[in-house]
Design brief:
Blueprint (H helix, E strand, L loop, with lengths): L1 H20 L31 H36 L1 H16 L3 H12 L3 H10 L3 H14 L3 H8 L4 H37 L11 H8 L8 H32 L2
Length: about 260
């Protein structure tokens, strides 16, 4: 548990301070130094344009992890609102909200995101929009389920009979009970967002060159995969380790919450 927390903290710090630690400009082209092996002046080597891979990885952490945070946070906000509307709005609102959720769930998230990005065009804004639109449904289901169980609680019924506004009821009575479960869901969706951003970047729909992003780095390195495979291995390791760390943190958090709820 402690090692997982340390690893998550390291990635969080890289997301914020990674560019400050980069030894070189990640976009500076240096053709005479292209495809340098790891070691010496270039700790992880250079890519096909002579750019320092370590610097690009550190700068890419802000794009890959930062955009994943934004995407998962937007999904959390939208999904929670939809779930609370379904739980508080009556049968008709519940039916509309859940049929909309089921419709979105019918399409694979990544394929739907690729279709949206293909229609709207490549770019950072499109990337965030496509992944946020396809990533809110699980939050909605969790929020609705917990909200329906809370609707019959005495303090919620009394607040409703006292004329308290539905937004106030959601703020003071629903959200405190929703946050633990939604936080666990958020960790999993954060990890999925990293994979989605990297996948769309690899397909050319994400952050556009010369800005460094782990998926875009994989795209740039694929041509030299046989001659210099380390170009693909480094960003691949960054994606795998960050996703694994966040998933393990989510599992640990779920176990802690389960222990607290058990008598």
């Amino acid at each position: 548990m402690r090692s997982v927390v340390i690893l998550v903290v390291v990635f969080a710090l890289l997301m914020v301070f990674g560019p400050m630690l980069a030894p070189y400009d990640p976009t500076a082209i240096n053709i005479p130094k292209r495809l340098q092996p790891p070691g010496g002046e270039w700790l992880l080597g250079t890519d096909a344009l002579g750019r320092d891979i370590l610097s690009r990885l550190l700068h890419g952490a802000r794009w890959s992890l930062g955009l994943a945070f934004v995407v998962s946070f937007l999904g959390l906000m939208v999904g929670t609102c939809v779930g609370l509307i379904a739980a508080q709005g009556g049968r008709f609102a519940d039916w509309i909200a859940m049929r909309t959720t089921d419709t979105f769930l019918a399409f694979p998230e990544l394929i739907a995101a690729v279709v949206i990005a293909g229609i709207l065009g490549a770019g950072t804004g499109t990337l965030v929009f496509a992944l946020a639109v396809t990533g809110w449904m699980r939050y909605a289901r969790v929020a609705r389920g917990i909200g329906l169980s809370l609707a019959t609680k005495g303090y919620v019924v009394q607040a409703r009979l006292a004329g308290m506004h539905p937004l106030a009821i959601a703020r003071w009575h629903y959200l405190p009970s929703l946050l633990p479960s939604l936080t666990v869901v958020w960790t999993g969706m954060f990890a999925r967002a990293i994979l989605g951003i990297s996948a769309l970047g690899f397909l050319g729909f994400g952050v556009q060159p010369p800005l460094p992003e782990w998926g875009t780095m994989l795209l740039d390195a694929r041509i030299h995969m046989r001659s210099t495979p380390l170009q693909m291995i480094w960003p691949g390791i960054a994606v795998v380790v960050s996703v694994l760390a966040i998933n393990l943190a989510g599992d640990a958090l779920r176990d802690v919450l389960a222990e607290q709820e058990s008598p």
